[in-house]
Amino acid sequence: MIMNNNEWEQRYQQGKTGWDRGDVSPNLHYWIENQQLEACRLSNNWGQSKIN
Asked: Rounded distance, CA 43 to CA 49, Å?
């Protein structure tokens, strides 16, 4: 089923998008709690960013 913009807007306004859990994902929460993530920097210049 393909939805048009009005249908998506209506679902968004009603909070029925299906992709918002309303909370952090369990895996992300686990990684943060167990200090398994390291600080990093993301760039929107894929392939063009330089490390100084």
From this structure: 7
